[in-house]
């Protein structure tokens, strides 16, 4: 949980305009921070900046393969944390750094907000934070106003404070690992958007319970959907049943235990051995280490639940949703037509 409770905790804010170099758009830099004496504006800004992070339990660390001090954002943030007088100077460096990475033709220019928060609550721990936010999309708003005792209409383009396009909060915690970092990217599914996380910020996933839970869920899904059918005779209905049981384990348990999971969910010794071999391959390919036990992260389970699809697709004619007992499903082959079939046993239609 990330939270800023007081508008006064937003102590410094500056805005720069960062265009796209490939479109010959300019970089326009402010020379001084904004005046934040208007509390109404401050409250709106807090909602715009912080609300998207309030339920974000996924964290990163700033990273560099050779030396963390060579990560530009780490260097700029460290100088601000060490001496707030350098805030404006370093905010300009951050804007220039983003401008240098805004070269993909589909990257949108926009306003870049650099903020310093004196107090920010992150998972119950109070810390200073630096915010880096970017607005890329404008929306059209109608303006209704009274003139000469008659209502008039006009319009104006502006920023929707309920839709943050890109954001990053760097907390003054875990400096040796690259600070604890939270990221928002509304365009993260687009290839051109990776510049925000991979090129501009340069981060890697923080090794925590959220990360471990997400990795194990991905491991289970990949094993069941691919490796299991390669090594064993298994129907798609049985695969879905195992997916459902795996998902239920993570939803119902507070702690993951590898031996318990394999014995209670996978059951068959040969399949358990295959799963553990696949786990080693998964670790090598992803360059991660998956512990045998850890506390399960509920937010990670909720996020990954949508990829555990319990849908049996039969050609293009039928989609069967399987949520429970696969003993009530019988598969066979019709000798006359040579086509496969499923029998579904039930007591009544819902």
Automatic annotation (TrEMBL):
GO terms for cellular component: nucleoid. This is Nucleoid associated protein NdpA.
């Amino acid at each position: 949980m990330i939270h800023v409770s007081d508008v006064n905790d937003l102590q410094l804010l500056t805005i720069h305009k960062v265009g796209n170099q490939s479109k010959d758009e300019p970089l326009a830099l402010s020379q001084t921070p904004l005046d934040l004496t208007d509390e109404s504006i401050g409250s709106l800004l807090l909602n715009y900046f912080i609300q998207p992070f309030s339920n974000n339990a996924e964290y990163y660390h700033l990273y560099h393969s050779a030396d963390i001090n060579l990560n530009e954002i780490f260097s700029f943030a460290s100088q601000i944390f060490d001496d707030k007088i350098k805030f404006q100077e370093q905010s300009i460096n951050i804007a220039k750094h983003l401008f240098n990475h805004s070269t993909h033709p589909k990257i949108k220019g926009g306003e870049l907000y650099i903020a310093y928060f004196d107090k920010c609550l992150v998972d119950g721990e109070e810390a200073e934070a630096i915010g880096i936010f970017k607005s890329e999309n404008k929306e059209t708003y109608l303006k209704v106003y009274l003139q000469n005792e008659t209502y008039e209409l006009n319009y104006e383009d502006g920023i929707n404070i309920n839709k943050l396009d890109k954001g990053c909060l760097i907390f003054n915690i875990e400096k040796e690992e690259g600070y604890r970092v939270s990221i928002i990217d509304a365009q993260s599914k687009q290839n051109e958007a990776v510049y925000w996380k991979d090129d501009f910020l340069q981060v890697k996933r923080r090794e925590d319970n959220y990360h471990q839970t997400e990795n194990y869920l991905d491991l289970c899904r990949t094993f069941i959907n691919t490796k299991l059918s390669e090594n064993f005779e298994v129907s798609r209905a049985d695969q879905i049943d195992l997916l459902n049981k795996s998902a239920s384990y993570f939803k119902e348990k507070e702690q993951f235990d590898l031996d318990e999971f394999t014995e209670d969910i996978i059951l068959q010794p040969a399949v358990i051995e295959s799963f553990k071999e696949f786990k080693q391959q998964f670790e090598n390919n992803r360059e991660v280490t998956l512990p045998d036990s850890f506390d399960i992260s509920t937010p990670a389970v909720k996020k990954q639940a949508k990829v555990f699809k319990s849908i049996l697709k039969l050609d293009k004619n039928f989609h069967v949703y399987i949520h429970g007992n696969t003993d009530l499903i019988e598969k066979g082959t019709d000798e006359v037509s040579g086509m496969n079939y499923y029998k579904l046993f039930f007591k009544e239609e819902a």
